[in-house]
């Protein structure tokens, strides 16, 4: 048997570009390594605070993201993702620069989810900052501009802790924020037949949103499981 090299590290296909943060990352968060059923590569992007990326459109950070993404590929990543849905703004530039598949944002699932739903139903989005999610973010992810959007802005805990990068998170208060925002989204838009979670930090509460609304819930976790399955297809035993 012969094998071919060319990488520094092996056994992990997905490279994750991380914001520079200090808030807690509980299991389910994509930047808690215990979340994944497979190894991943991580790289923290210097200066990429939640405030700068979400509220200020990642201004001045494109070159740093491009450099760090290429470093992940050189290290061994076969595909690149990020841990903020607002980075859809960098999708085209990263895909062009990296030479590997790139999935910057959970929002990129909306187009496919709409195709799954029955007539008269459409996908809704739950975001960490409704006021910051612009038409440009949606267009970059090919999301229809009339897509219903709900947010956890102004509620108990979740958005404030993440966006202000606080060191302590009340898990129960955050769970209730997600439930309330999802219920409000569904009540205001009866034609919503599924929800995509924009924010990667919402994943630990996806099951709660599903239980509260009865709707399918898609997240960066569901997206990257699919993404990984193409980068490292399962090898099945031969025969019956």
Automatic annotation (TrEMBL):
Organism the protein comes from: Denitrobaculum tricleocarpae
Q: Which Pfam families match?
A: Asp_Glu_race
* Similarity comment: family membership: Belongs to the HyuE racemase family.
A GO molecular-function descriptor = amino-acid racemase activity
Query: What's the protein called, per UniProt?
Result: Aspartate/glutamate racemase family protein
Name the InterPro entries for this protein.
Asp/Glu/hydantoin_racemase (IPR015942), Iso_Racemase_Enz_sf (IPR053714)
Q: Could you list the residue ranges forming a coiled coil in this record? A: none
């Amino acid at each position: 048997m012969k094998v071919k090299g060319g990488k520094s590290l092996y056994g992990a296909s997905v490279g994750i570009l991380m914001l520079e943060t200090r808030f807690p990352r509980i299991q389910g968060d994509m930047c808690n390594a215990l979340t994944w059923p497979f190894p991943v590569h991580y790289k923290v992007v210097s200066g990429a605070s939640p405030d700068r990326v979400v509220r200020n459109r990642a201004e001045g950070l494109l070159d740093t993201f491009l450099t760090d993404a290429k470093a992940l590929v050189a290290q061994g990543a076969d595909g690149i993702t990020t841990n903020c849905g607002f980075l859809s703004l960098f999708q085209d530039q990263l895909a062009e620069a990296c030479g590997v598949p790139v999935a910057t944002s959970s929002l990129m699932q909306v187009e496919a989810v709409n195709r799954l739903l029955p007539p008269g139903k459409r996908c809704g989005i739950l975001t960490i900052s409704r006021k910051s999610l612009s038409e440009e973010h949606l267009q970059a992810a090919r999301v229809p501009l009339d897509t219903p959007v709900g947010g956890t802005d102004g509620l108990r805990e979740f958005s404030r802790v993440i966006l202000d990068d606080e060191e302590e998170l009340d898990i129960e208060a955050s769970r209730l924020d997600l439930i309330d925002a999802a219920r409000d989204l569904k009540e205001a838009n009866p034609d919503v037949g599924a929800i995509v979670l924009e924010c990667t930090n919402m994943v630990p509460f996806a099951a709660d949103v599903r239980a509260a609304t009865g709707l399918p819930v898609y997240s960066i976790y569901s997206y990257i499981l699919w993404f990984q399955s193409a980068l490292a297809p399962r090898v099945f035993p031969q025969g019956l």
